[in-house]
């Protein structure tokens, strides 16, 4: 294979590698970070102490209960806001997130779900049972008498399940193959390069650029997500949830950026023509002192002087 052909093939493979880096990280985060129930509950747990999230939850639940029961929404919102300040609220928060996430993931993985036209629901008993236990432990009066009602609350309509299930299956495949393809293309591009040092530098810089692009995409996605919310009062709560869910993705973008720049700098500094290499060669082999000038021979006497 000629040198020019190897260079062109290496450039194409490295370009594909750098292009797949941010998309592979995004797909892996969605496939393995968002679909794991335990990881999701752990990520969302600190939001129980966020005041914006607590107020948004109290307003949403209070308005929903008031609409269903025909009660005063203002009174119910105040009651739920008072409840979010108790020690039992984090238990209800974690139980609700776990139950909702489990129900949604079960529907996405089961192709038969939603075919009968029924929406994805969650049983309120999965939330009220641990809540009742926590209130009993805290010695709240009459906590043991709280009834456990098996009430189904709709989470997703059946019409949205087909598209969501297809997207989930695509992410499940892409989350594994895109990062693997990026690594394979990068290694192959370096292996076939005529100058592997330059290939390593290009791959490292492309990886850093992919990390920067990923971080920019996360920031842009946050802004677009918050701008699409109709209720501006709940935007701080939505921003807190978005930041919590994308923490791993932002960390991955910074790691890619730092790793790429570090490898590129190390490759450049270790090259034979770098200033560091020249300095090391100068210290190992200092230049010999200059020899004293050789005196010029005396001029031959001319006929007149002789």
Descriptive notes:
It comes from Streptomyces achromogenes. With 306 residues, the protein is an all-alpha fold. Helices cover 69% and strands 3% of the residues. The protein has one domain. The chain has helices spanning 3-33, 37-44, 51-69, 73-83, 89-109, 125-137, 161-192, 196-227, 235-245, 247-269, 275-284; strands at 120-123, 152-156.
SSE inventory with pairings:
Blueprint: H1 3-33, H2 37-44, H3 51-69, H4 73-83, H5 89-109, E1 120-123, H6 125-137, E2 152-156, H7 161-192, H8 196-227, H9 235-245, H10 247-269, H11 275-284
Antiparallel strand pairs: 1-2
Helix pairs in contact: 1-7, 1-8, 1-10, 2-5, 3-4, 3-9, 5-6, 7-8, 8-9, 8-10
Quick overview of this protein structure:
It contains 11 helices and 2 strands; from the N terminus they run H-H-H-H-H-E-H-E-H-H-H-H-H. The protein has helices at 3-33, 37-44, 51-69, 73-83, 89-109, 125-137, 161-192, 196-227, 235-245, 247-269, 275-284, and strands spanning 120-123, 152-156. The protein is elongated and about 130 Å long.
Please name the defining characteristics of this protein.
mainly alpha; two-stranded antiparallel ribbon; transmembrane helix; elongated; 306 residues; 3% strand; single chain; 2 strands
């Amino acid at each position: 294979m000629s040198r020019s052909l190897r260079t062109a093939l290496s450039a194409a493979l490295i370009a594909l590698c750098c292009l797949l880096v941010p998309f592979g990280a995004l797909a892996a985060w969605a496939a393995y970070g968002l679909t794991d129930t335990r990881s999701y509950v752990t990520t969302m747990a600190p939001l129980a102490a966020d005041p914006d999230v607590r107020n948004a939850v109290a307003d949403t639940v209070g308005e929903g209960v008031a609409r269903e029961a025909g009660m005063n929404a203002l009174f119910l919102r105040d009651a739920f806001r008072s409840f979010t300040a108790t020690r039992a609220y984090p238990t209800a928060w974690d139980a609700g997130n776990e139950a909702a996430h489990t129900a949604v993931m079960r529907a996405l993985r089961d192709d038969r779900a939603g075919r009968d036209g029924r929406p994805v629901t969650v049983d309120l008993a999965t939330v009220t049972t641990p809540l009742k236990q926590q209130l009993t432990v805290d010695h709240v009066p009459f906590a043991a008498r709280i009834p456990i009602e098996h009430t189904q609350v709709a989470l997703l309509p059946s019409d949205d399940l087909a598209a969501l299930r297809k997207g989930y299956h695509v992410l499940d495949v892409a989350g594994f193959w895109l990062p693997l393809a990026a690594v394979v293309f990068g290694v192959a591009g370096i292996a076939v390069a005529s100058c592997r040092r330059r290939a390593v530098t290009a791959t490292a810089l492309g990886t850093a650029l992919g990390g920067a692009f990923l971080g920019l995409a996360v920031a842009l996605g946050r802004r677009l997500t918050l701008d699409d919310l109709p209720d501006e009062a709940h935007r701080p709560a939505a921003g807190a949830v978005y930041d919590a869910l994308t923490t791993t993705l932002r960390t991955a973008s910074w790691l890619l950026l730092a790793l790429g720049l570090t490898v590129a700098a190390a490759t450049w500094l270790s090259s034979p023509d770098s200033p560091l290499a020249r300095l090391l060669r100068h210290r190992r082999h200092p230049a010999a002192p200059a020899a004293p000038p050789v005196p010029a021979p005396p001029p031959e006497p001319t006929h007149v002087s002789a």
